[in-house]
Every structure is written in C-alpha cells, then in structure tokens.
Amino acid sequence: MNRILIVNDFWPLLKRVREKLLRKGYDVLTLRGEDLRLSREVPYPDQILAVMLGDDASTEETLRVIRSRQKDPVLATLPVVVVGGFNVVARVESLYRSGADEVIPADFSLEELCARIEPHLRLRKAYLELLRVNERLKELSMTDDLTGLPNRRWFQRDIRKGVEMARRLGTPISCIMVDIDDFKEINDQFGHRVGDMVLVKFGNAMGETKRAYDVVARLGGDEFGWILFDADSRSALNAAMRTKNRITSHPFRVFDHLINVTASFGIATCEGDSLESHGDLIERADRALYVAKERGKNRVVVMNEKGEPREEGHIEIS
C-alpha cells in the first residue's frame, strides 16, 4: 500500500485531502507542520509526502526543514507535493525553490489530486527498486563467488574502518591471515572440483568459529583474512588456535573423499593508541603467516609491533 504523510496546520483542508486519499486506498499519516519543524523523530513515509499550503511562510520553512534532514538517498528523493492555498499561484516559484516537487491548486478534485500524485508514486517505486538492485550489485561485487564470503575489497574496506574506529575508541583490533597448507597437492591429487569444495568447507569452518561481528574473507586462492574487532593478541591467538584445532581434528568429507586439511595462521594486533595504518597491520600479519609456513606449517604465529614473531602460546609482547 502506498503511504502518504500529510503535514498541515489547517485542519479543514487536511481533513478534506485525507478523506479523498483514504477513499482511493492510500495509507495516510498526518502531522502538524509545527511538530515536524520542532521534532527530529518524524515518521517519514516510504512513498510520498504532502504538505498543505498555509497562508504564511511556514510552508516554505517546513519544506526547507524536510529537505535539510534528508541525508540518505532514500529520503533525499522523497517526492514532496504541496496542496491547496488560495495564494498558491503567487508562491509557486518560492515553493519550488524551497523543495516542492509538485504544487496543486486549492480547487482540486479527487481525480486531479490522484492524477498528479500517481506519477510521483510510480517514479518513486522505480527509484527504490533501482536502489535495491544497485545495493545487491554492490554486495555481489564484494562477495566471493565460490565461498559466499566477503572478498578482498570487502576485507580492505572493513579493516580500514576498523583501524580508524579502534584508534578513535582506544580499543585493539587484530588481523589474522590464514593459508591452507599444501593446497596445490589437494588440487593435484583430487582435482579442482574437490579443491573448490575444500575451500568452501574451510570458509564455513572459519565462519562458524568466528564471533558474529568479526569478518572472515576469502582474499584469493587458498588465502583467507580474519578481522577481529576489539580483540587483543591473546583473544586473537585463542580464536586462531580454536579454529586450527577444529580443522585439524575434523577431516573434510568431499564427495567420496575424506581429506585431512591443516592451515597456518599469522596474527598481528594494533593497540588502540597505535599510529599503525591498516596496511601496516595486514603486512605484519602476512609476515607472521610467512614465518608459520617457514617453521613447518600447521601452526599459529603472532608478530608484535617490533616485528618479532612469537609462536602459538608465546605471545609476550614487548
């Protein structure tokens, strides 16, 4: 159902318009113009907003208030229709300049009112659908096709924002870089179809062990990234060890094969008072992952801010 919010301080005109729109099946909300101007808690409709014309400059003021509050794209394109007023002709230019999309004279009929409103409703519906499609396309562009996890673009965006937030709030943030050990051998022995399923199951296992508000992403190939918000080195280490042990102790069943999988983990933490960039944090976690691979794989290494690696339980950060 199309929802219309009517804003007006002149009750006779408001009542007349409201009754006409209700008869046509619209869902009509009403609000005094003064209440809209004074309150920030306004029930803006999904579809259209109508403002009744007053005899003074309050209508233009109401229009300016509405437009000044519409910061997001959904509200910014909300059609605003001004209805009525015997001096509407003299004020048309002022009303359009203040934010009106349509001005309807006072002697309107129900048929004219609906005929003038319905094109805005159709355009509004098409615009909201376009926004929905664009959001979906944006989501798809930031999602890994194979695993359904966030991709590198999503990971880079969230870790940048996470480091900025951690610095602002004075809280730690950790990054874990993860690599499946000897993944090429899995592909060579079982084929790429099985290899793809191993990646999917590995991503699922990481997703099931992370906290709800953390981010696990597939960065490409057999490499995954893990952002842990408000998590120090010990918390990140515990999370990595828990995931590593789960993967090691639960072979992946892929078609007719039971495949033992291990992984290496590199951890870096940025404390809340650190001036380190998100790029530096990722680079440190990458170095820790490299050390884990060099030391024999299937292990967790923490790299402190001085670039000193500590393996598994040894995370005394100097």
What's a concise summary of this model?
This protein is an alpha/beta fold and 318 residues long. 49% of the residues lie in helices and 20% in strands.
Explain how this protein is built:
This protein has 318 residues and is α/β, with parallel strands linked by helices. The protein has two domains: 139 residues, 3-Layer(aba) Sandwich (Rossmann fold); 160 residues, Reverse transcriptase/Diguanylate cyclase domain (Alpha-Beta Plaits, 2-Layer Sandwich). 49% of the residues lie in helices and 20% in strands. It is built from eleven helices and 13 strands. The strands form three sheets. It has a six-stranded mixed sheet with strand order 7-8-6-11-12-13, sandwiched between helices. Strand 11, helix 11 and strand 12 form a beta-alpha-beta unit. It is elongated, with a radius of gyration of 29 Å. The N and C termini lie far apart (63 Å).
